[in-house]
Design brief:
Elements: H1 2-27, H2 33-64, H3 68-71, H4 75-90, H5 92-106, H6 115-143
Helix pairs in contact: 1-2, 1-6, 2-5, 4-6
């Protein structure tokens, strides 16, 4: 069972990364009705994958891996959790923006997006991607026992 939970955890992580990359690419192009719908839907997938990642990671810590005692004595693991929280906070702006678009999209009209908002969305998603890269680095370090405080 351990391997299967690890597989699902990694699948959720790859889904999260893929959805962020897709958002990043869509935000670099002019907004169309199709891309606005895609952004709303892919951001929903991003949120679901983040929740699954957190749930499956918690299960791995509690039941399938080295145990909470080990992980909470690991500086890179604690850093990983802090970064995950930070990325979650950063993701609030794009998510709330995309949710505001829903009314226009339900009427099959393109939401009005100011240039400043468009630039901010690009910056926030870029910051999320940088944060995810730092999370991956922290995960690799934690997995190898770097920074473990006995």
């Amino acid at each position: 069972m351990n391997w299967f939970v690890a597989f699902l955890h990694h699948l959720a992580a790859f889904t999260l990364v893929a959805s962020l990359v897709y958002e990043f690419l869509l935000l670099r192009k002019p907004l169309t009705l199709e891309s606005a719908h895609a952004l709303v839907n892919i951001d929903r997938l991003y949120g679901i994958s983040a929740m699954l990642l957190l749930l499956l990671g918690s299960l791995r810590i509690s039941y399938f891996e080295k145990g909470a005692h080990y992980y909470f004595h690991s500086v890179p693991f604690i850093t990983k959790l802090a970064l995950f929280t930070l990325v979650g906070i950063i993701s609030a702006y794009p998510t709330l923006t995309f949710l505001r678009w829903q009314k226009s999209l339900n009427n099959n009209t393109l939401p009005v997006v100011a240039e400043k908002t468009s630039r901010l969305l690009q910056k926030f998603v870029t910051l999320e991607l940088i944060g995810v890269a730092a999370i991956l680095l922290s995960a690799a370090m934690a997995a190898k026992g770097v920074g473990y405080l006995s």
